Each structure stands twice: as C-alpha cells, then as structure tokens.
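Researcher: Sequence recovery benchmark, item below. Answer with residues only.
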C-alpha cells in the first residue's frame, strides 16, 4: 500500500488512470455475438485464401517453405487439422475443407493409431532409463523427439485441449506423465 500512496503523491492523476483501465463495462450479449461473427468471418476468409492458393497451383496444398503467404496458409491448415483431430471443427467447416480435396495432410497412416504408438515409445524409454525423456541439446535426437511429444501433451492437458480419452490413456500407460521432471 505504501507504494500506491507514494505514486499518488508523485503523480496525483495516476490513480484515476488506473481506475479508468479497471472500471470498464462488461461485454453485453450483442458484443459477444459480434465478436463470434468476426471470428467466423475470419475463418471463412482464411478458407477462401487457401482455396484460391490451391486453384492457382493445380490443387496443391500450401507448403511451409514455398513463400511467406503460403507459410501462413500452411499454418492455418495445420491448425484446422489439430482442431479436427481434437473434435472441435464444426461439420460445415469439415465439409468445406473436404471440398478442397485431401486437406487432412500427408500424415502417414491413421492419426489416432500414430498417436497411440507414441505413449508406448515413451513407456519403453521410461522402462529403460528410469525417467521420462528430457529435451536438452546434449541429448540424443530420439530423446528430443519423445520429449517434445510428451511436452506437447502436457501443455494441451494443462490448457484443457487434450482429448479426455487420450488423457486417460496417458494416465493408464504412463503414470506420472503430466508432471515434468528435470
């Protein structure tokens, strides 16, 4: 409190500025709906850019190293793949993306089967080393890959983005997986 009093003595208008920032009206329902409409509009705008890019290149998906514009489209498409994998992509958006062709990418095999194999690899590593993989530059490349995958699952779990069934699978196969250790 002494710091606040000191700041008010130095600058009498300081507290008014703080209150101005903190005393703001709460969004009403109309503002929230407008925000949602804007997000929807932005999604469809990105979709149109991807569709135009694919038309210009004979149906080829945007590549990460093609150009700055293509890299942005590639990243947006990757975000849609992640949303789809997590079950968060609406049916109208899935149908629109399906109309583009093979938008789900060049993943090898079934994404769920591929995901299910990763915890087993981490389990084997843990059984051999007695610890979870840790990403440090001094480690072998295969430990880096496992550590990165495990870190991603921890982050998604912490942010509430990890699918419930996957979280349960990790809890069952890798007890203690969610707590990072050094």
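Model:
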């Amino acid at each position: 409190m002494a710091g606040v009093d000191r700041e008010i003595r130095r600058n009498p208008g300081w507290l008014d500025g703080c209150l101005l920032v903190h005393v703001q009206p709460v969004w009403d329902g109309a503002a929230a709906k407008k925000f949602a409409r804007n997000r929807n509009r932005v999604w469809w705008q990105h979709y149109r850019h991807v569709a135009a890019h694919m038309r210009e290149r004979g149906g080829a998906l945007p590549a990460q190293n093609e150009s700055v514009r293509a890299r942005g489209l590639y990243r947006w498409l990757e975000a849609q793949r992640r949303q789809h994998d997590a079950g968060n992509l609406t049916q109208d958006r899935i149908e629109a993306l399906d109309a583009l062709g093979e938008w789900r990418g060049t993943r090898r095999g079934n994404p769920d089967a591929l995901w299910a194999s990763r915890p087993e690899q981490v389990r084997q590593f843990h059984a051999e080393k007695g610890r979870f993989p840790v990403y440090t530059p001094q480690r072998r490349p295969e430990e880096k890959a496992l550590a990165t995958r495990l870190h991603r699952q921890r982050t998604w779990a912490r942010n509430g983005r990890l699918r419930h069934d996957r979280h349960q699978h990790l809890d069952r196969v890798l007890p203690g997986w969610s707590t990072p250790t050094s």
